[in-house]
Design goal:
The complex is a heterodimer of chains A (about 160) and B (about 120). Chain A is mainly α and about 160 residues long. Chain A is built from six helices and one strand. Chain A has helices at about 15-40, 45-50, 55-75, 80-110, 115-150, 155, and one strand at about 5. The longest helix of chain A is centred in the last third of the chain and has 35 residues, at about 115-150. The two termini of chain A are about 30 Å apart. With about 120 residues, chain B is mostly helical. Chain B has helices at about 1-25, 30, 40-85, 90-110, and one strand at about 25. In chain B, α3 (about 40-85) packs across α4. Classes of the chains: A mainly alpha (about 160), B mainly alpha (about 120). At the A-B interface, β1, α1, α2, α3 and α4 of A face α1, β1, α2, α3 and α4 of B. β1 of chain A pairs antiparallel with β1 (about 25) of chain B, so a sheet runs across the interface.
């Protein structure tokens, strides 16, 4: 099996400059908003908003837009393909939430010992858990596919 | 005021860095992992430690777990709206924020969260 993860720097050329500005502004606004919530309602309520999907809206919309643009350039209507690309991104994000949970758990465990350990440990936990979750899901899909394709043709058609 | 300017700049840089990583990585489902990256948390927790100390940041990360569970619900709902209801990305992601809010406060209350 070839390496499933690859880097595609050419994707950066698909983005327009203002799309990066919008993401920067949204990221900054979400961070300011979290700070405001914390100062108005306390750290506990503010903590909820550390997992606010504000950026996800912009990312999913951009992914859909790029996919539609790519298909249109090839002379095809790309709306459906765009929605599917955004849905794939959402599916990946649902796995990434396991990593986010790990981040919060490890940070909470380590913060009283050392601030540096808490940041490094929590970031590593996020990366490891997210990547492992993605590989496990991928493996399960590959295991299920041959099962679906085996057996009598009549059962396969159902 | 300076605090909010710093928050805005740090948040913008961290979120953009994770978003760029998500842009260049393939396949798309793997890049999606970066949609749930703790970018706002990384930008916020340092300031929280400076302002409220370690215990304030610990309180925030406890609540963040409820927010992360709500984010899982949110992602699944967005996925279903895009695939089954054939909604466009912007309305699907914006409408689902209501689901995130309900789920986040629901999990937080279940866990005994208090303001």
């Amino acid at each position: 099996m070839s390496a499933p993860i690859r880097i595609s720097p050419s994707s950066l050329r698909e983005g327009r400059w203002y799309e990066y500005v919008v993401r920067f502004a949204l990221g900054g606004a979400a961070t300011v908003f979290t700070g405001l919530i914390s100062s108005l309602y306390g750290a506990s309520v503010g903590g909820l908003f550390l997992a606010l999907p504000a950026i996800f809206c912009a990312s999913a919309t951009l992914i859909e837009k790029h996919e539609i643009r790519r298909k249109r350039e090839a002379g095809l209507a790309g709306e459906r393909r765009g929605e599917e690309a955004a849905a794939l991104d959402a599916a990946g994000a649902s796995l990434g939430t396991l990593g986010m949970l790990a981040f919060a758990g490890v940070f909470w465990l380590l913060i009283e010992r050392s601030v540096a350990y808490a940041f490094v440990g929590a970031s590593l936990a996020w990366l490891c858990v997210s990547v492992v979750a993605w590989f496990v899901r991928r493996k399960l899909r590959f295991v299920r596919r041959p099962e679906r394709n085996s057996g009598p043709a009549i059962s396969r058609s159902r | 005021m300076t605090e909010y300017v710093i928050r805005f700049l740090v948040g913008g840089v961290v979120v953009s860095a994770f978003a760029l990583l998500g842009d260049v990585l393939r396949p798309k489902s793997f890049a999606g992992l970066f949609g749930a990256a703790p970018s706002v948390a990384l930008a916020t927790l340092g300031i929280a430690i400076y302002q409220h100390g370690e215990s304030g940041a610990a309180t925030q990360t406890l609540s963040m777990m409820a927010g992360a569970l709500a984010l899982a619900v949110y992602s699944v709902v967005v996925c279903q709206l895009l695939i089954r209801a054939r909604m466009r990305a912007l309305p699907a992601t914006l409408l689902s924020i209501v689901v995130w809010l309900i789920a986040a406060f629901g999990f937080w209350t279940l866990a005994g969260g208090q303001a």
